[in-house]
Each structure stands twice: as C-alpha cells, then as structure tokens.
Amino acid sequence: MLIALLFATFMIVRLVPGDPARRILGSEASPEDVQALRTEMGLDMPILNQFASYSSHVFRIDLGHSFITNQPVAQIIAERLPRTAELALAALLLVLILSIPMGIAAGVATRERRRPRLELAFGALTSVGGALPEYLAATFLAFFFAVFLRLLPVAGADNPLSVVLPALAISIRPIVVLARIVRVETLNVLAQDFIRTARSKRLPAVLLYGRHTLRNVITSALTIGGLVFTGLLGGTVVVENVFAWPGLGTVLVQAVLARDYPVIQGVTLFLGIAVVVVNTTIDLLLGVLDPRTAVRAQ
Amino acid sequence: MARAFLSAPSGIAATLLLLLIIAVGVLAPIVWGDAAARVDLAHATEGPSGHFLLGTDKLGRDILLRTLVATQLSLLMALASALIGAGLGLGFGGLVAVLPAPARTVGERVIEVVLSFPPILVAIFFTAIVGVGIQSAIVATGIAFAPSFARLANSLARSVASKDDIAAARAVGIGPLRVFTRYVLPNIAETLIVATSAGIAAALIAVSALSFLGLGVQAPQFDWGRTLTEGIASFYTAPLQALAVAFAIGAAGLSLGFLGEAFAHATNPLLWGAGRGHAIARTVLQQSTDPSPRNGRPLVLSVRDLTVTFPRNGGRVTPVDSISFDMAEGEVIGIVGESGSGKSLTALAISRLVPYPGEVSAKRLELAGRNLLDPNETDDRFLALNLGMVFQDPMSSLNPVLTIGTQLTEGARVHSNLGRREAQSRAIARLSEVHIPNPEQLLSAYPFEFSGGMRQRSMIAMSRMNEPRLIIADEPTTALDVTVQKQIIDVLRELNRERGTAILLISHNIGVVAQICSRVIVMYAGRVIEDVDTRSLLRKPAHPYTRALIAAVPPLGADRSVPLTTVPGRPPDLDAIPSGCPFNPRCPLVTSRCRVESPSLVAIGDSHSAACWVTAPGPSADTPSAR
Question: Looking at chain A, which residue has its C-alpha nearest residue B460?
C-alpha cells in the first residue's frame, strides 16, 4: 500500500507531458539551465534508479526542497500539518457527536414506518445537506456568520474562533451522509430478533438503545460510512482555500499552480498516508467493536 | 418505473428545475455571451439595480449574466467528466468481474483501495500531472470518479456473471472479454446509464471545485467555479456574486442529484422497503368485566377473547381472533398450529410485544391476577419479574456483540436490583440449571462461540434470571437438530418439575408439544379449534385439523432435510378467511353447514372441547369457550 503511494507520487514528475525540467523553467530558459535541472532532478538516470533514489530519500524524511522558496518540503509539511490536523479533527469531532445521535434518534422515531412525516422531513433535509459540497457550505456559512452577522472571522487562522466556520463547512455533508446511514442501520438493527429479546427483558430505553442498538449500529455504519472519514481530508483541502487557512491544502493548491513538484509530491504522499492511517484505524476499531470480526481476523 | 417518480411532485419540481438549467446553459452564451464579458469600470462593484439585477463585480461585469453564461461550460465539463469516469470505471470494473478468481480478487482490491481516497484529492493529484486548464480538469475529475463507477460496474457485473446462461457460456470456453461484451454489458447497461446521470451531479460539484481552486478554467474563460473564486475574493464588499454562483451550483447539483437518486430508487426494488420490524404495539385498553373463576390452583394466566388486529390495505385483518384459555400455576400448556395460525402473535400479545401497528384487545388478559392491558397495573418491572420469554432461533435472538454474561445479567440488575457480582453468580446458577458445563467461563463468551443447543440453553437460563412464574417459549426447538430438540424439551420439563415454573410452549410440531404439555390448544386461522388434555389428544383427537397435524408429525429421528409431510392445502390468507368454519376448504369431513356457519368451541368431554360441526356437534352455538 505504502509502496504504491510512493510509486504514485514518484510518477507525478515522470508522467508530466514533455520535459518536466522544461515545464518548470518555462520556454525562455536556456538549454543549459534545463539540462542542469534535469541532472539535479535525476531525470537522466534509468527510471528504476530514480525510484530507488526517491524512495531512499523519502525514508530518510528528505522530501527535497521547494522550487519556489527553496524551503525543505518536510519542514513545510511540519509547519502546516498542525493547522490542517486541527481543522480535520474539529470536523471529525463535529461529525461524530452530531451524526450518530441524530441518526439513531431518527431511526428510533421512524421505526416500522412510524411518523412518516418526520421521515420525509429527515430525508429532504439530508438530501439537501448531502448535495451541498464543502466549498458551497463554506460560502453560505461565511456569508451568514461573517458577512451578515459579523460574528466570526471569515479568513485566516489568527483567532481561536477561526476554526469554527471551516470545521462546520467541512463537516455538514459528512454529518448528514453519516446520519442517513446511521438511521437506516438503526432501522435494520431494531428489526432484529435480538432487539425483541431485549424488549422481552423490559430493559429501560438507555440500555435498549445505548447498549443493544448502538454497538451494532456503529459497527455497520463504520463499515459502510468509512469513506466519510477519509472524505474529511478531501474536504479540508478544499475548505482551507476558501478560508485562506494556512494548512496543507492551501500549500498543495499553490504548489500545483506553481508546478512546484517536490512540494506536490511531499504533500500528496503525506495526505495519502493519512488516508491509509484513517482506513486502518477504522478497521482496527471495527475489530474492537465487533467480536466476530476479531475472530475472523485471527 | 420512471413514470412513478416523475409523477411525484418533488420529481416534477426537480425535472422542471433541471430543464430550466439546461435551457439556460444552451441559450445564455448566445444571448448574453458578449454582455457578460463586457468590462465597465464606471460601474464596478455596484449593488443590485434595475440595470444590473444582482449588481456588478469589480470589473463592472453583470453578475447575473456571468452566472447564467457560466452554466454552459460548467454543465459541459460535468457531462464530459462523468462520461470519462463512467467509461473508465465500466471498462475496468466490468472486466475485472469476468476475470478468473485470483485476478478478480486483486482487481477488486485495487478498486477498493483507490476508492478510499477522496475524489477531490485524486483530481488534484492528476491536475498536478496534466497541468491546469479545462481539459485537464475534465480528465482529472473523470479519473477521480472512475473508481466508484468501477465498483458499481463490478458488483453489477458480478451479480449478472453468476447467472446460468453466463456460467454456461464460460463453461464452453468463451473468453472473458467476449463474455463481458456479449452477456454482461447488455444486462447492466441500464443501471449504468442511470448511475452516470447521477454521477453528473457529483462531477459538476467536483469540476467546479477544481475551477474554484484555480486548477480548472482559467481567465478570461469562466465557469461557475471560477466565478465563485472571483466572488470570494471580494466577499466582504460584494458578497452577492459568490452567493449567486453558490446558489446556481447548489441548485444544479441538487436537481441532478435528486433525479439520479430517484432514478436509482425507481430501478432498484431493494430500496423500496426500508424499515420493517418489531416493537411494542399500541394496546387497546378494555377493562375486564367478569371476575376470573379460580377453582383449584390459582391462575397464572387468564385470557378471554384476546384479539390482535393489524391494518392492511385500508381495512384490518385479525390474525388472532377472540381466543380464550386459562393456565394454572405450574401448568405446561402447548399452543400448536401451522405458521400463520396466530400462535406466535398470541404469545407476543400476552407479553405485550406485538409489533407496531398491531392492536391488542381482550375482555380479560391477566398475568398472576393483574391486568396486562393496563400498563399501570403491570409495569415493566412486574412483567420482567413474572414473565420470561424464550424465542425461536437463538442465533438471531441473542445480541451478537454482547457477551452471554451481559445479556444474562442485565435484566436482573435492572429489575431485581442486583449488583454485578450477585447478578453474575445468579447467572452461573441459572446456567448450571440448564446443564451448561463451566458456566463461570462462559459468561465472557459471545453467542457466536456457542453451539445452537448451548445458545438455546443460555436463552432459557436468561428467561429464568428473575425467576418468573411463567415462561413463554415460542418455537424454542424449531431451529435445532432433533437430538438437541429433545435435550431442550428435557430442560424445560425439568424446570417445570423442579422450580414449578408454568410454561406456555408455542410450536408448529404437535409431537414436541405432546411430549411435555399436560394440555394442548390447537389454533387455526387465529381461532382456537380444539382445547384438549394430552391424553385425549393422542387417543381421540376431535377436530379434523388436529388429526391432520398428528398425522404430519415426523417420526422421531427423521431426517430434517427431508420435507415434512404437511396437512394438505394451505392455511387461509388473513385477507380471505373462508366463511363458516375456516378449515372447511381443506377438511375431508366437510358438510354444507361448515361452509356457512362458524362452529364454536363446545365441550365434548372432561377438559376437552372442539369447534367442529361434524365431530363435536354441540347443543347450541353460544357455549362458553375454553373449558
């Protein structure tokens, strides 16, 4: 998996149409300069050697230097990472504390086709929310809270409250998507025989829903909704650019625009690893929550 | 099916909105193309006015016109990238599905892995390679959505590829590519077209995101994403531009997405029936009028005219129709009947677990002398302490993610106010009663680690945790092997003899019931048709249905894989219960009277009554029911 990521980021430069060095330097550069850059980038070497050299550098956390600022890429990532992590974690927290209770409550309230009007309202609301991409949510939120109410800062990360709007913008879609999944899973779980057994023990609602329903719901919702969590990373990259948030997303977009390949390689590699880590965490969590998968894994 | 959703009001609204957007996309650049590009610095950054309906941007260009004109490029880009994504995904995912097993597994794994990366990151990754611009944004977005199309195409193709004709095609040596184009593709094309139309919504949003980030459309060309960026730049001074474009993207995305979803819904019958299940039903309160006769042993259960109804097709059906019986403390009674006879619903009605929206009514429904129809008189604690339930399939009836210990102890901890330790030692005692070896160690085990028989023993132990007077066991042996069935029956019998627990045993198998019960109630179409002590049941069953049930009992040790001999004919549908005796269409002894008049339960001996005009002709039709 990691090797595939390594290879993919390595190939960014190799796949650029034409001569990467020429593209970087522009058409006015002298052939000597282009040749010098080719040598510096190792483009003269056989491709396998290039990959080996790239990999060994990556493993020594040497991601090269930015073409533009000449700053080490590892240092850029280290500087920007805390801001991105802050945003992504705030969004994750919002998603977890809002979507699961919302989905379960909606599921319990609309089980067995009770309250059809509530079900309809929930469906309509989550359809709209689910179709609202992060950057549109960001635009509307920024308008309402920052421009219209002038309550919250609209750009930058200087104020502790700055994180509120971007985090909300990132999390709205995942919240409703996950809440929908959780509601359907809740309906499925509530229809299971073991819930009837639990009811026959006359358990209070706290145990019935909090113990017998919740764990089964989370297990299946995580299995289906795992993509929501990696999606938060994509959302973060986009929303950082709306709010001029000094994280990895803004750096990445600037680097793509400036054809700053070492930065692009470093940041995409890092984000790719983050996606893998999130997925692995979900798998591990599933193992803890569901004893059956733990046994299968052994 | 498409007509079904197009006729719904929301479907019409979304369709009209989409048609409007498409019309704007086609016409706007022709009509307003030049006006939208006209720079007019004299009118820069103006608010809405009669001339500029939504005001102007910082170069004095009309915001409304720019938003309208940008529609075309945005829609075309979205369409192009959705087609690229669908094409790539279909090619890869579909082909993978028809490959031989090892290559298929690898291919599917690749799809899953790529799919775990957010599409927007994949798109940015590819723009980094191909550079910024319209074409690259389209290609990058297309590639980013290819994995999800690939997965869809793959799962569709696999479901098709397992069909018989395709298996046959492969067996005669037709290669994967040919199987794919000749057999798989035609079968999945329709669904894929639907998915592609839904994918346009996602593509629109993604491709606009790329332009918004500055990686797509470059000035002086403009699409919605580009216009949104320009709007954000002057957000504080002129928020209208960003808002107008944001609304345009949102409306287009929503109407496209809604149509796609509605299409998917209309073409996938699996999505129609979400939400089914069990829960406590509304109970119709009806105070008992006549006092219960308590001759001999005190009654643990007294049922008079218990009726359960469900709404169906505008009317109501009555799966349990005025059944009556009494049960003394420590008695073991069986209720038998085919599926659909109402026996299980009777059990659920007594235990107040009838699923919504069923309604329960009765002249009297008493557990240990207290009215079950009044939740104030019989609260949850009373029920928990006096009534235990054992359900059919112990695999599905025990919670898979909770330990046996938790599931056994929780009821006692809540309702008998036991601490953790006390509840655990009680659970160990109960598990020993049902002959589970080493119960201490099993408390931390999960249901899936047990055999079927062990699970059912645990279930019985669980129902005994609060030492109830009555246990209702609903088909407790049905899902088990014959040898295990006998063990479970022995456990129940032992509980009854040694602890004096009354047991109401529900089963379709009259043989199982006769082994343990002192009395048997036979139900048909929601009514009691015979109520008889076990000895009379075996020696001289009265009702033709009862006789047929006895004839259908498999001999002990019969192979369970062989279909059981059954009573000829089928039980009636609740919508169409025959007039007269409900059994008359299947009855070998049917007379003309049976087709017109419904027989009542009449006594034909000591503790034996039946409802049959032929074998139990009573003196009058209004003889009191049950005993």
Answer: A197
In whole angstroms, how far apart are CA A166 and each of A43, A136, A139, A274, B260?
40, 11, 10, 20, 29
Distance CA A1, CA B33 (A): 49
For B118, the closest of A211, A216, A230 (CB atoms) is A230
Element (H, E) at B318: strand B315-328
Report residue B112's pLDDT band, with 50, 70 and 90 as the boundaries: confident
Using DSSP bridges, classify how beta strands B359-361 and B299-312 pair: parallel, antiparallel or unpaired: antiparallel
Q: Does 2.40.30.10 match the CATH number of domain B299-524?
A: no
Straight-line distance from the first to the last Cα atom of chain B, in angstroms, rounded to the nearest whole number: 56
| Complex ipTM | 0.86
Domain ranges of chain B: 2-39+54-274, 299-524
CB pairs under 8 A between A and B: 220
Q: Is B590 exposed, middle or buried (0-12, 13-18, 19+ CB in 10 A)?
A: middle
With a CB cutoff of 8 Å and minimum separation 6, the contacts of B323 are: B303, B305, B306, B307, B342, B346, B521, B523, B526, B527, B528
> Residue A222: how many CB atoms within 10 A of its CB?
21
Tokens describing residue B140: 């990058």
Q: Tokens 């790719």, residue?
A: A272
Asked if A110 is an interface residue toward chain B (Cβ–Cβ < 8 A), one would say yes
Tokens 């750009």 -> residue: A155
For residues A101 and A148, is the Cβ–Cβ distance under 8 A? Answer: no
**Both tokens assigned to A165:** 């709007």
Question: Is the predicted pLDDT of residue A69 greater than 70, yes or no?
Answer: yes
| pLDDT 10s digits, B478-494 | 878 888 888 999 999 99
Core vs surface per residue B512-535: b (16+ CB within 10 A) or e:
bbbbbbebbbbbbbbbbbbbbbbe
Helix (H) or strand (E) holding B224: helix B224-233
Nearest to A253 among B213, B258, B398 (CB): B213
pLDDT of residue A227: 81
A128 touches chain B (CB under 8 A): yes
CA distance A247 to A85: 8
Name the region of B559 (left: φ>0; alpha: ψ -120 to 50; beta: rest).
beta
Cα–Cα distances in angstroms (integers) from residue B262 to residues A125, A127, B5, B74, in the given order: 16, 11, 6, 23
How are the residues of chain B apportioned to helix, strand and coil, as percentages rounded to the nearest 5?
A: 50, 15, 35
Structure tokens at B58: 């910082």
Q: What per-residue string of b and e applies to A223-252 under the rule 16 or more CB within 10 Å gives b? A: eebbbbbbbbbbbbbbbbbbbebbbbbbbb
pLDDT at B620 over 70: no
Q: Could you tell me the pTM of the whole model?
A: 0.81
Per-residue HEC secondary structure of B91-123 comes to HHHHHHHHCCHHHHHHHHHHHHHHHCCCHHHHH
Instruction: Please state at what angle helix A248-258 crosses helix A261-289, rounded to 10 degrees.
Output: 140
Fold of B2-39+54-274: MetI-like fold (1.10.3720)
Pairwise CA distance, residues B472 & B343, whole Å: 11
Verify whether the Cβ–Cβ distance A127 to B131 is below 8 Å: no
Other CB atoms within 10 A of residue B435 CB? 14
Beta-carbon separation of A131 and B253 below 8 A: yes
Task: Give the separation between CA B544 and CA B546, rounded to whole angstroms.
Answer: 5
Please, which residues bridge with residue A227 across strands?
Answer: none
pLDDT in tens, B414-457: 999 999 999 999 999 999 999 999 999 889 999 999 888 899 99
CB B88 within 8 A of CB B146: yes
Taking CB atoms and an 8 Å limit, are B116 and A111 in contact across chains?
Answer: no
B504: part of which helix (H) or strand (E)? strand B502-507
What is the DSSP secondary-structure string of B342-385? SHHHHHHHHTT-PPTT-EEE-SEEEETTEETT-TTTS-HHHHHH
Q: Does A264 touch chain B (CB under 8 A)?
A: yes
